[in-house]
Each structure stands twice: as C-alpha cells, then as structure tokens.
C-alpha cells in the first residue's frame, strides 16, 4: 500500500473492526467484507459498476434488486465486479458531439434561410431591448455616421459588442452559430471534468463503506456519467429556446458563451481565466456578478482551503481572486472608454439594466408592474425587484457552500427569472444543466405537471400576444398572466431540485459526506487521500 494511504488505512481498519455483519456481494449471498484497497493508481472503482459480463437476468433472479441491479439496503453492492467495467469511463469520442454540432448548425442555417427568420427576430420572448439585433444594426449605423451609438435611446449593448460586429456584420449569422457551438463545447468539457470529481468522491466513500442504505440508488455509475456531457451539449444546442435565440441573432447568446467559459475555467481550476471570463460576463450583462461567490467557493475547494472566516489562507485567496476579477473588469471598461472616447455607455447600458426605463413586454416580471405604477413609487420598487437577483446569493452561499457547481446552476436560474430584460435564451442556459442532476428527478414533486406548464406557456406566448396586439380580443393582463405562470413553473422546478435539511439532505447525496457518518467525513477530509479528489484520473 502506498505510504500516502497509510493514515487512512488505520481508520478503515477501525471501521472493519466495528462491522457486525458482512455484506453480500453476489447473487449467491456469499458473505464477504468490502475491500478498502485501492486497486490501481488510476483510481479504479471496483464497487460501483455492474460487470459487463453479468447479465441483467441474473440481477433480477438475485432477489430484491432495484432497476440498476443494486440492493436496496446497507448491503447495496454490485452483483459482480469487473475492474475493466469499474474503471473511470473514458472520454466520449468526438464523433457524437460532432454529429450534434452538425445537426444543430444545419437546423439554424435552414431557419436563417426561411421566411420565419424575420418573424422570430421580432418576438418579444426571444429578443429584448438589450439584446435585439435590430438595435445593434441601428447602433452600427450611428457609429458609421460618426455619431455616438448611445446618443439616442435605442442601442444599449456594450461597446465591445458593437465593435465586434462592426467588422463581422456580413458574417453575423455565422458568428451566432459559432457562438452557440462554443457554448455547447465549453459546457461539454466542463461537465466532463465535474463528473470526474463526482466519481472520485463516490470512490472514496465506497472505499470507506460509509454510504447510508438509502443513498445506494443515488450512486452514479461511470456508464451513466459517461453520457452526461453529451446530453448537456444536446440539451443546449437542440433546445428550441436556443435555436430561436440564435435565429433571432439575440446577443444573449454571446453572454451565454462567456458564462459557459467561466464555468469551464472554474472547474479546470484556473483562477486567472475564471476571473477574466466572469469579468467579461459581468461587463456584458451585469447580473453574472453574483456568480463570483460560487466560482470562489469551487476554486477554494480546488486549493483545499477551508471556508472559514478565521482562516488566513481563505482571505489571501479571496483577495487574490477578487483583485484578478476587479482588475480584469477595470481593464475592459477602460478599453471601452478608449474605443468610444466617452463614458456614455455606462448609463446607457448599466443604468438601463438597473432603472428599467423601457417597458416593452417580455417574459420577465418588471414590465407590467411598472407600467401600472405611479412614477414617484418606481424607484423604491425597482430596488425591491432588482435586489432579488443579488439577495439570494447570501443564503445560497451558506446553504450550498459545499456544492459550488450546484450553487452556480441555481444562481444562473435565478438570474434568468429575475433579471430586468430576460429572454428564452437565458432560460436555455440553465436548462442545459438538467442532465447533470438527472438522478435527483425522483425527488421532484409534480415534475410532469411542471414540464407541461413550461411547454404550454411557451406555446401560448405568441397566441396571447396576437390576441392582444393584433386581434384586440385580449389585453395585457392575459399576456402577463401567462408570463407569471411561466416564471412560477421555473421557480417551482428549481426549488424542487434544491436540497432540503434533515433526512432529505442525506438522501440527495450531493456532498462527499452526505450519507456518511459525521466523524467519517471529518476523517476523510483530514486524510491524505482527500487531495486526490481534484487530481486527474
């Protein structure tokens, strides 16, 4: 046994000495104690996956096995073990991802050439006053005339965006297709690395035999985890919301790309690149500022630094990451000033986002409420509405400090719901993460009803808009009612995924020490084996 595992071996021996009953590892109920020995330097997981040679019929004949071939009690171990089958699954070949990319690009190219492109680009669900392509074109026209694009009340995008399309205006469709492809690829590799960490967490607890009986069904097998990155890319690229956003040439797609690369660089452990992409995302739409906290928490885990206020290492790393983030943001803002020789973009972009002066209907919560409000009350309620995006960061950071990626997912969903000018492109980004936690769907209440609500609301948006604006047989109350229903459906879905306290928290099994005894988790974190969580396979 390696010397670095010796501190842990004494603890595992103590566990074995306290074991009163053997576990049963095969269909013949042959008693055998679980092995705590690491089977290879690569970290083969000999107690996770059913052997490829073990037929499913044998698992069904073995007795009370669940649908995965796992026992439902404390003895929930695989039917047969195979080191080859239990090894970490290799990365998916590029062919399936390339096929998904080809299909996604083909669908977008076909829609770009269809008569639907103009109709989609005018839909209030797909574009907003911030992300509308027509407003970008208007800003480019003003820039070509030597006039500041922010001189009117039309253009509200950032200076870097307008200068980007100043050179690529003839290739705008290609730019948006490439943007979506880059987002999907970044999410693919981010989730692939995240799954490696999850795999190693499970491996350590299985080696200690410290999973609670009701957590066995939640253990992720490598075969299940192998296809999750591809599913994430598929969910993003072929999501109708993403397709519509791309065809409408909504600049929301660019913001999604920046957030996706922020997630990728954070999971990779690059604090510098993470800070740069977070600064770019904040510069683009302001609200990603709230992703600073989950990004910091994950990087602290990568550095094995405990989240303690009295820890000197915690504060050193906090200030390092904060300075990299703020420095990158200052550089980007100064670059924008040098491009325009003016600070007009600050009130035109960020003041527009925060004050919500344009009450064009959208799928958000602001427009109807402030259209009915007296002017002298608006400032107070704008602050109340805007604080929703930022306020939940604090309690979520306390609740999910050990689960920064899940925290990041929840925060992205909160941004898409409570931002002042949301579009379906914002919704598509967090929906792409649903496959990552597909093993938690069983804890969702009324999942079928919630899915139907979101789908039906998406279909009713254009119907009620037509009845209100063109047919005149409805009014704004109808459209806002379906908007409220859509957002309630999103909120209920997200709240259903959040871990609850007590027994539910143990059953979810999201954390390395959930489902194990507290003293085991403490010993695990203090052992020399814990740093292997973030080492490559």
Mean pLDDT: 78
Strand content: under 5%
C-alpha geometry? globular
Low-confidence stretches: 1-92, 501-530, 532-537
Could you give the topology of this structure?
Blueprint (H helix, E strand, L loop, with lengths): L5 H13 L4 E2 L6 E2 L23 H6 L21 H4 L7 H19 L3 H6 L11 H12 L14 H10 L3 H37 L13 H5 L1 H10 L2 H8 L4 H17 L2 H15 L6 H11 L9 H29 L4 H11 L10 H6 L3 H17 L1 H7 L4 H15 L5 H8 L15 H25 L4 H22 L5 H6 L9 H9 L11
Antiparallel strand pairs: 1-2
Helix pairs in contact: 4-8, 4-10, 8-10, 8-12, 11-21, 12-13, 13-15, 14-20, 18-20, 20-21, 20-23, 22-23
What can you see in these coordinates?
This protein has two domains: 3-87, no CATH class; 96-443 and 499-520, no CATH class. It has helices spanning 6-18, 56-61, 83-86, 94-112, 116-121, 133-144, 159-168, 172-208, 222-226, 228-237, 240-247, 252-268, 271-285, 292-302, 312-340, 345-355, 366-371, 375-391, 393-399, 404-418, 424-431, 447-471, 476-497, 503-508, 518-526, and strands at 23-24, 31-32. It has 25 helices and two strands. α4 runs antiparallel to α8 (172-208), α4 runs parallel beside α10 and α12 (252-268) packs antiparallel against α13. It is 61% helix and 1% strand. The protein has a two-stranded antiparallel sheet with strand order 1-2. By secondary structure, it is mainly alpha-helical. The longest helix has 37 residues, at 172-208. The protein is globular and about 65 Å long. A hairpin with a 6-residue loop joins β1 (23-24) and β2 (31-32). Belongs to the PIGU family. The chain crosses the membrane at residues 43-60, 81-107, 160-191, 258-279, 285-301, 313-339, 345-370, 377-398, 443-468. It is a multi-pass membrane protein. Keywords: Endoplasmic reticulum, GPI-anchor biosynthesis, Membrane, Transmembrane, Transmembrane helix. Pathway: Glycolipid biosynthesis; glycosylphosphatidylinositol-anchor biosynthesis.
């Amino acid at each position: 046994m390696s010397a670095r595992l010796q501190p842990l071996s004494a603890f595992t021996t103590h566990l074995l000495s306290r074991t009163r009953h053997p576990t049963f590892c095969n269909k013949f109920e042959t008693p055998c104690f679980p092995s705590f020995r690491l089977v290879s330097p690569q970290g083969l997981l000999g107690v996770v996956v059913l052997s490829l040679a073990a037929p499913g019929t044998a698992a069904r004949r073995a007795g009370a096995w669940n649908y995965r071939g796992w026992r439902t009690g404390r003895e929930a171990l695989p039917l047969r073990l195979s080191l080859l089958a239990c090894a970490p699954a290799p990365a998916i070949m590029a062919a399936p991802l390339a096929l998904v990319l080809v299909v996604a690009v083909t669908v977008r190219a076909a829609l770009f050439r269809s008569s639907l492109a103009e109709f989609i680009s005018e839909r209030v669900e797909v574009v907003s006053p911030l992300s509308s392509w027509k407003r970008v074109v208007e800003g480019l026209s003003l820039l070509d005339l030597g006039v500041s694009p922010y001189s009117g009340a039309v253009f509200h995008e950032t200076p870097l965006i307008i200068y980007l399309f100043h050179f690529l205006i003839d290739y705008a469709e290609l730019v948006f297709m490439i943007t979506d492809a880059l987002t999907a690829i970044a999410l693919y590799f981010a989730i692939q690395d995240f799954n490696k960490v999850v795999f190693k967490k499970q491996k350590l607890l299985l080696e200690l035999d410290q999973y609670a009986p009701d957590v066995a069904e939640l253990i992720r097998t490598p075969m299940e985890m192998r296809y999750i990155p591809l599913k994430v890319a598929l969910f993003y690229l072929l999501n109708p919301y993403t397709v519509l956003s791309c065809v409408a040439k909504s600049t929301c797609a660019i913001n999604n790309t920046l957030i996706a690369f922020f997630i990728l660089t954070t999971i990779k452990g690059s604090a510098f690149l993470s800070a740069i992409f977070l600064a770019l995302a904040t510069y683009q739409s302001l609200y990603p500022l709230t992703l600073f906290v989950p990004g910091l928490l994950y990087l602290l885990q990568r550095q094995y630094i405990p989240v303690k206020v009295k820890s000197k290492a915690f504060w050193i790393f906090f200030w390092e990451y904060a300075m990299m983030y703020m420095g990158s943001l200052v550089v980007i803002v100064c670059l924008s000033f040098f491009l325009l020789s003016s600070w007009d973009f600050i009130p035109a972009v960020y003041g527009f986002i925060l004050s919500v002066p344009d009450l064009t209907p959208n799928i958000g919560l602001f427009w109807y409420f402030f259209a009915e409000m007296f002017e002298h009350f608006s400032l107070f309620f704008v602050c109340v509405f805007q604080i929703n995006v930022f306020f939940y960061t604090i309690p979520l950071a306390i609740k999910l400090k050990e689960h920064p990626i899940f925290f990041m997912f929840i925060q992205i969903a909160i941004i898409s719901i409570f931002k002042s000018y949301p579009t379906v492109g914002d919704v598509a980004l967090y929906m792409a993460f649903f496959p990552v936690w597909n093993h938690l769907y069983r804890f969702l209440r009324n999942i079928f009803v919630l899915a139907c609500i979101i789908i039906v609301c998406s279909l009713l948006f254009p119907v009620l808009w037509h009845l209100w604006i063109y047919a005149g047989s409805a009014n704004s109350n109808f459209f806002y009612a379906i908007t409220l229903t859509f957002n309630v459906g999103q909120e209920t879905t997200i709240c259903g995924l959040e871990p609850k306290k007590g027994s539910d928290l143990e059953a979810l099994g999201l954390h390395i020490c959930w489902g194990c005894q507290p003293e085991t988790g403490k010993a695990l974190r203090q052992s020399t084996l814990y740093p292997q969580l973030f080492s490559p396979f």
